[in-house]
Write a structure and sequence with these properties.
With 336 residues, the protein is mainly alpha-helical. It has eleven helices and four strands; from the N terminus they run H-E-E-E-E-H-H-H-H-H-H-H-H-H-H. Helix 9 packs antiparallel against helix 10.
């Protein structure tokens, strides 16, 4: 990273201003207006919305980055750094919700998108990182730029240069403590690794200044190792969800026949066998008790039903008998 590149970032930061009162961005340098998409009545380019102003500044920053000879071979890194600035500027406006595709959608509105579509498309995953993580990365970028400026400006002031380096070390640790989830940790690590490499070059250049090394916090590794752990934890979690433990595999013989006494199970160790054996003996009395309760209850209900049915039948027989006697009595009276 050169002092000229840092100067371009500082220039864009100063000239693209957000007013909280009007909720509008202002381009305070006409150089950015050259990348506006619309043309006014006088034939001049102008940006008539916040999105166009921001995207124009981004395109101007990318174009300037590419004009720097010693940075031209690192297009991948330059686009990443422009995205960090872009995210920071958008986040100043609370009315713009920084979602996964917000930055990409804003840039696509600009007519210059086609000129840089390849590098932008390749960094779409970086734009999808949550803005809080991008904010931490941008603070580290600004810290490194500040260190370059201080160390170059006054080589005799070693203590001030070291103090700026210490701030970079703190920012780097913050980036590792606040680590993103599996989906975005790879693009996040690529940006953080590029920032660390740029700082290491400064540290090597000013070797006699004894600038602090960028080290991870105690108990953590570097970004790539932490990302590997994150990916592994995520993979293990998905595997556990997709492949639940199959109880039928516990204690089965490899030949498909009944195991003899010499065969040991592979899924349950010897120390855990006793609880598994004891469970059926504990549950058996409970099951028998419940079964007896419902069985006897069912028998009583069945017996009572039979008694009621028998009583109804007897009652019907009595009614029939009484009716027969009554009819016979009536017939007898009529004959007399």
């Amino acid at each position: 990273m050169s002092e000229e590149l840092c100067g371009a970032i500082n220039f864009a930061d100063e000239k693209v201003v957000f007013d909280p009162g009007s909720q509008k961005y202002t381009l305070n340098d006409k150089i950015f207006e050259a990348y506006c998409s619309t043309t006014n009545e006088d034939g001049k380019k102008e940006c008539d919305s916040n999105g166009l102003k921001l995207s124009s500044a981004f395109m101007g920053l990318i174009e300037y980055f590419k004009s720097i000879d010693n940075e031209n071979s690192e297009d991948d890194k330059l686009t990443q750094y422009a995205i960090l600035w872009f995210s920071y500027k958008i986040s100043q406006n609370s009315n713009i919700k920084l979602l996964k595709d917000t930055m990409y959608d804003i840039l696509k509105q600009n007519d210059w998108f086609g000129e840089h579509s390849e590098s932008i498309e390749n960094k779409k995953d970086t734009m999808g990182i949550h803005y809080l993580y991008l904010k931490n990365l941008y603070e580290l970028l600004k810290g490194i730029c500040n260190t370059i400026t201080i160390c170059n400006k006054n080589p005799s002031n070693i203590s001030e240069c070291q103090e700026s380096g210490n701030k970079c070390a703190i920012s780097y640790r913050s980036c590792l403590i606040s680590f993103p989830w599996e989906e975005i940790c790879n693009p996040y690590c690529r940006v953080l690794s590029n920032l660390k490499n740029d700082y290491d070059k400064i540290r090597e250049k000013y070797k006699s200044y004894n600038l602090p090394e960028l080290k991870p916090p105690e108990g953590l590794s570097d970004c790539n190792d932490e990302c590997f752990k994150q990916n592994k934890r995520y993979k293990d979690m998905i595997d556990a969800q997709n492949h639940p433990i199959d109880d039928s595999k516990i204690g089965t013989s490899t030949k498909g026949s009944l195991p003899d006494s010499s065969v040991t199970t592979t899924n349950i160790n010897n120390g855990n066998k006793l609880p598994y054996i004891a469970v059926p003996f504990i549950l058996l009395p409970i099951i028998l008790g419940i079964s007896y309760k419902y069985l006897t209850h069912g028998r009583r209900k069945k017996s009572n039903a039979k008694k009621k049915m028998k009583a109804i039948i007897n009652l019907c027989d009595e009614n029939k008998t009484k009716k027969g006697v009554k009819n016979a009595f009536i017939e007898k009276n009529q004959s007399e």
